[in-house]
Amino acid sequence: MGGSRAWAALATGLGLVLALLVWRRRQTTPKALEAAAATSGPEALAPTDATDVREVASAAPEPSSVPPAPEPKAAPEPKAAVDVVVPDAVPPVATPARARPKREDSGLARGFLNKAPKKAKKTDSTKPEVRPQTTTPAVAETASASEEIAREEQAGVRFFHACDFREAKGCFERMRRKANEAQLGKEEGQAYRLLANALDKLNTPTEEIHSAYKEAMRLAHKHDDMQLSFNVLTGMGSHEVRMENLEDAEHLYFQSLMLAKRVLSSHEEAIAEGNLGVCLGQMDGRRAECLEHFQKAIKLHDGSNSHSVVTLLANYASALCADERYQEAQGQYEAALKLARRIGDRRVEINILTNLANLCENVLSLPEKARLYRAALKGHAEGKEICAICLDSLENGRPQIVLQCNHIYHSDCFEGVLSSESESRSRCPQCRNSHSSFAAA
């Protein structure tokens, strides 16, 4: 009996010890978890490796042969301890992650590509910005060559409009040589075209003129220069008109008109229409078409090139004379004369003065105006009469020819007209009247 009570007292003591251990564990676990969270950060806590309480309880020997003792009367503390429920295992306690310290939001994500922009340096707006020069020697050399070419072209054009065709030819030859050395194809093509124009005025053999025009056209096609192509077609057409190859001239002028309508401006279209008017005005039965082309040209002209305008007005006046509309022709001639004097186009001015003098003297019976125009012609030759073919003085000792229409030429200049194979070689180069009988002077 005494042994049973001893075993019962021992079991009761063990139960009290176990209850006390569980109670202390429940009191210390939250504090331990908080300390672990404070030191280990936001990582998830692993479940506590707690030993099963029943395993601890089973460590004490429990005899199977001893019958259970009756429950003794105990103090209130042990009774309360027996009523505590012991879980199988202590579950993990979820704790909030450690709060990170707040930082001020800069509006930019951290990273090398999102660094805050550097502060711009203050600059003085009154001082001009100095940029490093990047011009290479080759570019500078090309620019210098272009300037020299432009100067030669401008000088040659001035000589050409002043009827000094020999000086113009020299300028255009130097322009072509410099453009070739600098390998500037477009400028070289332009030089060939201008050179061909000057050669045409100097009565150079046709083969040389055609060769210059062909080279200019080749370069225009190579560099896709539509403006140069148009100018070459115009020059070739003018040469064919001078040679009285009117059908070829019409074809060339028509090509230039189609080119102007497709890719160029109304200015080029006006030039082409005027050239067609000149060409068709010399063909029998096509005078009405001629006047229509002139009227279209006058409407299209924008006035950007005064030399083209004055030539157009003078040619239109000549067409009106051929249509026996003399009063209108006089008005167009006088308008063209005023413009030619304003822009200094001496070549066109001389032609207009000659035509006006003939018109006023032979058709309109205005002798006073005719004398004024002839006096102006003498002023251009420094008080001397000039040959309308070479525009040189008639008082230089060279033999002269006076036609029935009273137009005077150098004999060798006029022989060049007579020796041509054109159908109009029997007409005066100025008034187109027949010169079947003339007198030598």
Architecture overview:
Residues 64-75 have a biased composition (Pro residues). Residues 31-79, 92-145 are annotated as: Disordered. Keywords: Hydrolase, Membrane, Metal-binding, Metalloprotease, Protease, Repeat, TPR repeat, Transmembrane, Transmembrane helix, Zinc, Zinc-finger. One of its GO terms (molecular function) is metallopeptidase activity. It comes from Durusdinium trenchii. The protein has 441 residues and is mainly alpha-helical. A hairpin with a 4-residue loop joins strand 1 (400-403) and strand 2 (408-410). It has helices at 2-40, 53-58, 76-82, 137-161, 165-181, 185-201, 206-222, 226-242, 246-263, 266-281, 287-300, 306-322, 326-343, 346-362, 367-380, 411-418; strands spanning 400-403, 408-410, 438-440. Among the domains are: 2-82, no CATH class; 305-380, Serine Threonine Protein Phosphatase 5, Tetratricopeptide repeat (Alpha Horseshoe), CATH 1.25.40; 385-441, Herpes Virus-1. The chain has a 3-stranded antiparallel sheet with strand order 2-1-3. The longest helix is centred in the N-terminal third of the chain and has 39 residues, at 2-40. The model is unreliable at 37-67, 74-90, 105-115 and 435-441 (pLDDT under 50). The protein has 16 helices and 3 strands.
